[in-house]
Write a structure and sequence with these properties.
Layout: H1 2-16, H2 18-34, H3 36-45, H4 50-72, H5 74-79, H6 82-105, H7 111-117, H8 121-131, H9 139-161, H10 169-192, H11 198-219, H12 229-253, H13 259-266, H14 270-281, H15 287-328
Helix pairs in contact: 2-12, 3-12, 4-6, 4-11, 4-12, 6-10, 6-11, 7-10, 7-14, 8-10, 8-13, 9-15, 10-13, 13-15
């Protein structure tokens, strides 16, 4: 009886603090995601191809969690429907495409520009949620989308107009395409993530995504071996810090937040990433970039507040509905 009481109290504690825990997971994940462009830059400096970085970290992450998934989630894997397997596979492919494009774009544009261009993802995420997932977004989330996009365009356009020769059209296009891919895999992942536990979800998504990227590596005959030990060490760091701790945390959050809020929150990555780039690569942000970043953060806050208001109203409506049914009975 004592053991049962202990388990119940633990469950009650988790339920009570679940929302703060969810937000903490997002914050910690964002920190590790902010390390991604820095780690990628160091790996690229060791002449490791961008597509090999993207594919290796996904397949390695899947392999690392394989023993846990096989031992504890085998029955759940067998219970996943074909439709959900298909959605998981699509999520992995689009996530892989997102990683490939954003990493290649880092070869052509500065870290901050790369991250800010990815901020256009909320446009696509919102359109996907409204048209495909039939979601109704709170007006403050739409305000957040507008602020995020405004800040991103302010930085990108004015930076290019200012004669910044580091801004490459190819890099800009690749970053924009990565944003679209990111919005797509986030929207698909949100649809299937609540049905599947986090580790089986990651195992399938990372496995399919890694196979997809490494298939391109083989088809294009990209060299896999022969790089420096440092190059492989940076791939390992990207696997553990970025893929397992960064992307996995955001995948966990997909079960509790709308895809648009997740995409907007990831825009905060640009700030610490640009600070790291300044300290390590002497990439100095301009005053325009600072203003754009402030606008971007305002958008993130607006979206989060909008989601909180929407959640509160939904719960209040459910309570009132339940009370009405109770009175009728």
């Amino acid at each position: 009886m004592g053991v049962i009481t202990l388990n119940l109290s633990q469950n009650e504690w988790f339920l009570r603090y679940q929302k703060p825990i969810n937000y903490l997971v997002v914050v910690v994940s964002l920190f590790f995601l902010s390390l991604s462009p820095i780690i990628v830059r160091y790996a690229q400096a060791e002449r490791v191809p961008s597509i090999l970085i993207a594919g290796s970290r996904m397949i390695l992450a899947s392999l690392l969690i394989t023993p846990i998934v096989v031992r504890y989630y085998a029955s759940q894997l067998r219970a996943i429907t074909r439709a959900d397997v298909f959605l998981l596979a699509l999520t992995g492919i689009w996530m892989s495409a997102n990683g490939i494009l954003v990493i290649i774009s880092l070869e052509h544009i500065p870290v901050l520009t790369n991250q800010m261009l990815a901020s256009t993802a909320p446009i696509w995420a919102a359109l996907i949620e409204v048209t495909w997932l039939k979601a109704r977004l709170h007006p403050l989330i739409w305000v957040g989308i507008g602020l995020v996009v405004t800040g991103s365009l302010l930085i990108t356009i004015l930076q290019a107009d200012g004669g910044n020769t580091d801004v490459s059209l190819l890099g800009v296009v690749l970053a924009l395409l990565s944003a679209i891919c990111g919005a797509i895999y986030t929207a698909i992942g949100r649809r299937v993530r609540p049905k599947v536990s986090i580790l089986p979800y990651l195992w399938v998504v990372y496995g399919v995504g890694g196979i997809f990227a490494l298939s391109i590596v083989l088809l294009t005959q990209v060299q896999v071996f022969g790089y420096s030990a440092s190059g492989y060490a940076w791939i390992g760091a990207s696997t553990i810090l970025v893929q397992l701790l960064g992307f996995s945390g955001m995948a966990y959050a997909l079960a509790f937040f709308p895809a648009t809020v997740i995409v907007l929150s990831t825009r905060a990555v640009a700030i610490p990433a640009s600070i790291f780039a300044f300290l390590l690569f002497s990439e100095v942000p301009t005053w325009i970039q600072v203003i754009g970043s402030v606008i971007l953060f305002a958008g993130i806050i607006s979206a989060i507040v909008g989601q909180e208001v929407a959640d509160y109203r939904a719960k209040a409506f459910a309570r009132n509905l339940q009370g009405t049914h109770h009175d009728s009975a």
